[in-house]
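Table S4 entry, Pirin family protein.
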Amino acid sequence: MKTTIHTADSRGFQNHGWLVANHSFSFANYYNPERVHFGVLRVLNDDFVSAGMGFGMHPHSNMEIVTIPLSGELHHKDSMGNFGAIKKGEIQVMSAGTGIQHSEFNGNADKPVTLLQIWVIPRENGVEPRYDQLKISDNAVDNEFQQIVSPNPDDAGSWIHQDAWFHLGNFTENVNRTYQLKKSGNGVYVFVISGTVKIGDTTLNQRDALGIEETDQFNLEISENSEVLLIEVPMKLPKL
């Protein structure tokens, strides 16, 4: 098993006043040639958006975009006619494909919103743009991982145009869990939203991450009061 650790304090950091962003991978003005991507996982931004502020209408194309709110309420509007709000316990998935424009704003005038925005390189370019918003809290079970994204529209959670699986878990007790990879050649990016997780000899704390590859399974020792995101992705970039 090959592992790569990304500690929370090693991430790229940008403070724009209304937006405070931590970048697990090169993004915008942050560039690290050793932190461009993990397989087809291209972006994992950990954002804090001040009350009433947000991102104006801007374009995307040929990227799978997953947004996971951690607190507050995020208001969405896009060129496909979708609009609404997402909050903790929900996810938003967009296939940018041939091109979309969207805006994301903090819908609360008094409180900040925090979120993870994740970009995955698709297996093919030029797909029809799509939008999905899903309440995942109804099917969540404490102390177990819940599948929230997969390649299959008929599977649990939402779906994207890539052989990738996202699992999210909220753990109220000390537990051991084994993750079995879904596809040979994939790797897993373990991101600790809160709490503590031990994988082998590596201990991860809040906002630390571990890239795992060249294995078909691994064990996690998860401490109580932890929230953990697993992102399984192909390690080989597609020829687009």
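The chain has one domain: 2-234.
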